[in-house]
Amino acid sequence: MNTTNTASRKWLKMPHTYVILIFLVLVATALTYVIPAGEFDRAEDKATGKSLVVPGSYHQVEASPVSIVSIPKAIVHGLIDSADVVFFILIIGGTFEIISSTGTIEAITGRVAKRFSNKGRWVIPIFITLFSVAGFTMGMSTEVMVFVPIGIAIARALGFDALTGTAMISLGASCGFTAGILNPFNVGLAQAIAQVPMFSGAWLRIILLVCLITVTSLYIVRYAGKVRKNPERSLVQDLEKDADKQELDFSKLPPMQLKHYLTIATVVIGFASLIWGVSKKDWWMEELAALFLTMGIVSGFCAGYGPSRIASEFVKGAKSITYGALIIGFARGIMVVLDQGDVIDSIVNGLAVVVGELPGSVQVLGMYVFQNVMNVFITSGTGMAVTTMPIMVPLSDILGVTRQTTVLAFQLGDGITNMILPTSSALMGSLAVSGIAYQKWVKFFWPLMCMWIAIGAILIVIANIIKY
Q1: How buried is 429 (Cβ within 10 angstroms: 0-12 exposed, 13-18 middle, 19+ buried)?
Q2: Other residues' Cβ atoms within 10 Å of the Cβ of residue 278
Q3: What start and end residues bound the annotated signal peptide (predicted)?
Q4: CA nearest 434: which of 204, 164, 78?
Q5: Nearest residue to 87 via CA among 293, 379, 300
Q6: Is the Cβ–Cβ distance between 206 and 179 less than 8 Å?
Q7: Which of 310, 358, 435, 450 has the fewest CB atoms nearer than 10 Å to its CB?
């Protein structure tokens, strides 16, 4: 009997993350045989400078199903397409290993832990709120992964776990990105396409942000409290085993030395440069990777390391994060297959037709569901705006839904599911940096995502009722 139960549990064990991703690539391949190939015509919009879908221009094209023997090539193609993100993550891993080896993070987090030892849970809503600002102003999403190691270090020092540290950073940015109060990359562009005043209707998006931050804070605080009370309840016990051995003794905190202050100065200047570059100079992965590489090397010299020691620490950090970095390339293979099969536009058109056929009372919810589904196939906020908004805007005019409500449906669909989709570089990058398995993150996050979806649905209905 025991043997049977053991065998059954082994059979039901969650597959390896790479196995899940390859299975999804196979599903995408099958879709290229089932869904008719098609595409929209696209034209440049003078107001936005973007190539937009021409409504009503959908037409079928010659089928180009992806052969099963092409799957390995598609995965490699995915790795090449996402090379900037993959190498960015490897550089982050190497840089933070150099910084960590100096003892600076331990010295700082030890003092933070001592300061908040009796009220450490307040750190969680503070970090969530702080990173939400970055999310709703400059659209921080993928870039947030660079802050995850700091969040984990502080969370562990306060008696929490790596999952808590990762969540309070990445979900904070996600709350802000989803609310998109002043985000030019999703709300700003969508409003420009919908021809409504830029960043108008901010009052409802502020209410959305407050709701998301409140629910998210309570959810993470509750989980963190359980872990602090009983570490066995952590969903990432495997990551915490080594961390437990390094538990900080407040009576033996390492003294702050000159090398620590110099390293702190380097990191502060580096992150200030990051914020300036992203907001003012349109920096992206290439520039950010170069910035962090420089930050790591300078930090090493500040600690008195020689070139060989810096290189050794960098390789050690990059090596430890390779597993997670490559996941992003595998996930990208899903989109490569769908794109090669010319079925993404067919999916957009099919879903738009379904929404138009829904009963009037639920059509606005149909638009909301449509945008959430499309986020599975088009994870770029800009990409989804230029693909779906030209279709949704005329449809909303016919249905009697305000264009502002249509923008709200878009931004909610663009943001809510980002933190659970394996095709999201924002999520997979944060998990790669933290070392948390995708399956364990899903187990942690899915109840919160359901709450987010419910909040979004309620606000969409309210927006439709008041003709927002």
Answers
A1: buried
A2: 18
A3: none
A4: 164
A5: 293
A6: yes
A7: 450
Contact 248, 157 (CB under 8 A): yes
Measured CA to CA, the distance from residue 99 to residue 87 in angstroms comes to 18
Supply the DSSP string of 341-370, one letter for each residue.
TT-HHHHHHHHHHHHHHS-GGGHHHHHHHH
CA distance 159 to 353: 51
Please report where in the chains the tokens 């400078």 appear, as a residue.
49
> How many Cα atoms are found within 13 Å in the side-chain-facing hemisphere of 430?
35
Cα separation, 336 vs 338, in Å, equals 6
Read off the tokens for 272.
């200030």
The alpha carbons of the chain give a radius of gyration, in whole angstroms, of 23
The single-letter code of the amino acid at 405 is: T
Distance CA 311, CA 301 (A): 11
Q: Which residues contact 38 (CB under 8 A, 6 or more apart)?
A: 58, 59, 60, 61, 342, 343, 345, 346, 349
Q: What are phi and psi of 82, to 5 degrees?
A: -100, 20
**Non-local CB neighbours of 1 within 8 Å, separated by 6+ positions:** none
Dist CA 156 CA 120 (whole Å): 11
Torsion angle (degrees, nearest 10) of CA 353, 356, 359, 364: 120
Residue position matching structure tokens 């005019």: 397
Residue in the block written with tokens 């992965």:
285
| Contact between residue 120 and residue 145 where contact means Cβ atoms under 8 Å apart | no
Please list the residues that pair with 59 across neighbouring strands. 39
- Alpha-carbon distance of 132 to 420, in angstroms, equals 18
Decide the pairing of beta strands 51-53 and 42-44: antiparallel
Q: How many Cβ atoms are within 10 Å of 340's Cβ, its own excluded?
A: 19
Nearest by Cα to 428 from 297, 329, 338, 355:
329
- Single-letter amino acid, residue 100: S
Q: Are 444 and 347 in contact (CB under 8 A)?
A: no
